[in-house]
Specification:
The structure is a single chain. With 474 residues, the chain is α/β, with parallel strands linked by helices. It has three domains: 111 residues, 2-Layer Sandwich (Beta-Lactamase), CATH 3.30.450.20; 173 residues, 3-Layer(aba) Sandwich (Rossmann fold); 118 residues, no CATH class. 47% of the residues lie in helices and 16% in strands. It is built from 20 helices and 16 strands. Helix 14 crosses helix 16 and helix 18 packs across helix 20. It is elongated and about 130 Å long.
């Protein structure tokens, strides 16, 4: 029967040419010798380490090869004599120090049919080991830096509390933070729920542990379980071979912050409940139960009672999370905090961008009157924008985006465009004066510019603005 030109490996046919290509692209030098020590194969890497071409090595016995390649000692005779795999060190004419592993291949009678010799440069092994150790040291330093930066970030968390509501809330926080109890934070988007959670962790008994935050609304539902609970290697298609540690396990000894908890998929609510009650879980694809000790702080901007009534959130989980409830009121309901936050963010971004501005009274009052639907996050972004964009030393009304002018114009009751219904000349003059002042302030933004446009003194412009613009100077 004619011999096939293919070799079967794991039910796949590899041609002789392909096998030779694989061997020739090996990083290590590979030899094969027959049962007498005669070289019958050498790959291309052999030339780099031994200084002679593979074709010149074929047919040489160990002693001839030793003389031609300048290597010592010859390793094949030692293996042929011991009839067992062994590893020896060998020097070559190129100055390389090789680690040579000889593996005997036996025939059906138990006799050595040939040897496979795998050779690697000791220096390269040392370099790899050194690089590996340096990488480990670098990773260790990076982990230390991450921990330091994380702690620094927590230390830099600033909660502005000038209003009565916030002062009352912070008094409650100082009472419950040291107690290892679950907390649910309620509030509109941008009110500072994440900052409050970090502050609770910072003054809690777990302050030296990790603070792990996850936004349940930002992760696709199909990935949420693996992110929270982790998985074992090969648990599903696309999984990392070594597996992955979940965020719950990473929070062991510290705090797990579940932001937007109302968006947690119903099928995972039961697993989170088990973690809270039993302090244990099983990673995806695993069989071993893992224990975890972490405090859970959750937050949401949704009405949880409505979600429970609609069957979208488990009532038992809600009561486990909501042992203590903290509510952050929207910014529009606490103007005292708005004023403090304006100057807090102004100073923050002055330091960041090396700038220096003041805010005109007119601009300040417009910022205070604005409803801030995006709350603290919107205010912070606005102040940062003004600090970066405004080149003048004073931030004026004219520097504010159009949305503020529109909000301002809606808050002022402009006179009707049709003919005024007046009974006296004085009433008509008063309405005209009011209209001109309001429209001028809306257009120019400051008492100084209004005075210049209407050719009156700034003190008079100031008085008229106070008189006609809701008794407030913008």
């Amino acid at each position: 029967m004619r011999e096939s030109k293919y070799v079967s490996v794991h039910n796949k046919q590899l041609s002789r040419e392909l096998l030779l290509k694989i061997l020739d692209n090996s990083y290590d030098a590979i030899f094969a010798t027959d049962s007498t020590g005669i070289t019958i194969y050498a790959n291309k890497a052999c030339e780099q380490y031994y200084g002679i071409r593979p074709s010149d090595m074929i047919g040489k016995d160990p002693w001839q090869f030793m003389e031609q390649a300048g290597c010592y000692p010859p390793t094949a005779p030692i293996t042929l004599h011991s009839k067992a795999r062994n590893t020896l060190e060998q020097s070559t004419r190129t100055g390389a120090k090789m680690v040579v592993t000889n593996t005997p291949i036996y025939d059906q009678n138990g006799n050595i049919e040939f040897l496979v010799q795998n050779c690697r440069d000791v220096k390269q092994l040392a370099d790899i080991k050194r690089d590996f150790e340096q990488t480990k040291e670098l990773l260790a330093r990076m982990e230390e830096e991450v921990v330091v930066l994380s702690k620094k970030e927590l230390q830099n968390v600033k909660l502005v509390a000038h209003s009565a509501q916030m002062k009352e809330l912070m008094t409650l926080v100082e009472k419950v933070a040291p107690v290892d109890i679950n907390i649910l934070i309620l509030g509109e988007t941008g009110t500072g729920k994440s900052a409050l959670a970090k502050n609770i962790h910072r003054i809690s008994s777990r302050q030296n542990g990790p603070f792990i935050s996850i936004n349940c609304a930002a992760i696709p539902e199909e990935l949420m379980e693996s992110e929270l609970f982790g998985y074992m290697g090969g648990a599903f298609t696309g999984a990392l071979q070594k597996g992955k540690t979940g965020l719950i396990e990473l929070a062991d000894g510290g705090t797990l912050f579940l932001d937007e908890i109302a968006e947690l998929p119903p099928r995972l609510q039961g697993k989170i409940l088990d973690v809270i009650q039993e302090r244990r879980f099983i990673p995806i694809g695993g069989h071993q139960v893992k224990t975890v000790d972490c405090r859970i702080i959750s937050a949401t901007n949704r009405n949880m009672n409505t979600m429970i009534e609609r069957g979208l959130f488990r009532e038992d989980l809600y009561y486990r999370l909501n042992v203590i409830e903290l509510e952050l009121r929207p910014l529009r309901e606490r103007p005292e905090d708005t004023l403090a936050l304006i100057y807090y963010f102004l100073n923050k971004f002055h330091k960041k961008y090396k700038k220096d501005h003041s805010i005109s009274p007119e601009c300040r009052d417009i910022l205070l009157d604005y409803s801030w639907p995006g709350n603290i996050r919107e205010l912070e972004n606005m102040i940062e924008r003004l600090v970066v964009v405004v080149e003048d030393s004073t931030i004026e009304v004219c520097h504010l985006p159009k949305i503020f002018s529109e909000a301002f114009s809606k808050s002022i009751q402009f006179p009707a465009t049709e003919k005024p219904q007046v009974r006296t000349l004085d009433e008509a003059i008063c309405q005209l004066e009011r209209r001109m002042i309001v429209e001028a302030l809306h257009k120019y933004g400051s008492s100084r510019k209004v005075a210049h446009a209407l050719h009156i003194s700034q003190s008079k412009a100031y008085r008229l603005i106070e008189k006609y613009c809701n008794n407030k100077l913008f």
